[in-house]
């Protein structure tokens, strides 16, 4: 197959049980912009919220499905166990540590065990997150923080960083990353859990923080039971629809059960599970979030793809009102 390399992270989609508190945390505490308030296209009774840089550039989106009755997450293997968010400098981590202390956000100390300066923290539901400094980074460019954010632009989140996969059988996932998705294994760093194997680093596209996956093999954990505060899937960037069709054929040729081509309106997608059961998505860079909203009003109203517009009245009746015009 004549496939172009994947361009890096596209988005990460996670689960929340409370859309209102989720909106407040990710916009007011983390300073991300809500670029789209929509619905889960596979279950129109719940919100799908997209937080990102100023216009939702691919590689900057952290999204959430609201599942109001989602239970606790019981952490374990076969999971996306840590989502990193990029900031520009080491000084930004000091800013964020102080901000988290002032706002009562659960966080660790600044660390350097990945080879870069990082700061781990959790949201109000225990979502596992990490800020990573781009000070010495080269590779996939970051996005542009929204200038109306409560966080100063120089310290704003510029995109998704390395995604950590925690699995029981590392070689199975590594084989898919390398042989199917075309990632290159570029290094490793020690686990911070005593007695566990080093964490392996894989890169795609231009590499760097916006194109890395960390693979952690653990033999001391059960399989994760997902709930609120867990991650549903990770998506990687494909240039356009033509390229995505090639990936549909390639994934099928490799006998990985998959969704085939899926129309999501803001982008086009393909879904499949790697051997440890983690859900991967390949998603096109466009058309983007300004397809149905102007830049200045992104995320303020409920956006529905055209194929759901006829159901708007019944869809809105099922959703708890969420004011995003503040």
Q: Any key phrases for this structure?
A:
326 residues, 2,3-Dihydroxybiphenyl 1,2-Dioxygenase, domain 1, 5 helices, 33% strand, alpha+beta, eight-stranded mixed β-sheet
In short:
17% of the residues lie in helices and 33% in strands.
Describe this structure in words.
The protein has 326 residues and is α+β, with helices and mostly antiparallel strands. It has one domain: 2,3-Dihydroxybiphenyl 1,2-Dioxygenase, domain 1 (Roll), CATH 3.10.180. Helices cover 17% and strands 33% of the residues. It contains five helices and 16 strands. It has helices spanning 19-29, 90-103, 170-180, 241-253, 312-318, and strands at residues 9-16, 33-40, 43-52, 61-66, 79-87, 107-111, 118-122, 128-133, 159-167, 184-189, 199-203, 212-217, 231-238, 262-263, 267-273, 279-287. The strands form two sheets. It has an eight-stranded mixed beta sheet with strand order 2-3-4-1-13-16-15-14. Strand 15 and strand 16 (279-287) form a beta hairpin. The chain starts with 8 loop residues before the first strand and ends in an 8-residue tail after the last helix. The relative contact order is 0.21. The mean pLDDT is 97.
């Amino acid at each position: 197959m004549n496939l172009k390399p994947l361009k890096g992270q596209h988005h990460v989609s996670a689960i929340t049980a409370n859309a209102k508190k989720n909106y407040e945390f990710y916009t007011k505490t983390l300073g991300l912009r809500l670029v789209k308030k929509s619905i889960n296209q596979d279950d129109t009774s719940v919100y799908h919220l997209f937080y990102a840089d100023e216009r939702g550039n691919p590689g900057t989106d952290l999204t959430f499905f609201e599942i109001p009755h989602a239970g606790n997450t019981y952490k374990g293997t076969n999971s996306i166990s840590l989502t990193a968010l990029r900031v520009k400098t080491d000084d930004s981590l000091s800013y964020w540590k102080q901000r988290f202390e002032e706002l009562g956000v659960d966080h660790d100390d600044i660390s350097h065990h990945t080879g870069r300066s990082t700061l781990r923290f959790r949201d109000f539901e225990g979502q596992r997150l990490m800020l990573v400094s781009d000070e010495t980074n080269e590779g996939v460019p970051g996005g542009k923080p929204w200038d109306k954010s409560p966080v100063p632009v120089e310290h704003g989140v510029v995109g998704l960083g390395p995604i950590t996969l925690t699995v029981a059988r590392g070689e199975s996932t590594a084989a898919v990353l390398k042989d199917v998705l075309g990632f290159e294994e570029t290094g490793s760093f020690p686990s911070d859990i005593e007695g566990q194997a080093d964490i392996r680093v894989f890169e795609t596209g231009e590499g760097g923080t916006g194109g890395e996956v960390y693979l952690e093999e653990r033999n001391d954990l059960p399989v994760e039971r997902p709930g609120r505060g867990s991650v549903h899937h990770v998506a990687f960037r494909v240039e356009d629809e033509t390229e995505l069709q090639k990936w549909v054929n390639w994934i099928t040729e490799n006998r990985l059960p998959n969704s085939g081509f899926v129309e999501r309106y803001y982008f086009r997608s393909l879904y499949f599970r790697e051997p440890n059961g983690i859900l991967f998505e390949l998603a096109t860079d466009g058309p983007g979030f300004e397809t149905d909203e102007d830049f200045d009003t992104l995320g303020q109203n409920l956006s529905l793809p055209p194929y759901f517009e006829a159901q708007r009245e019944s869809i809105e009746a099922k959703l708890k009102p969420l004011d995003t015009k503040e």
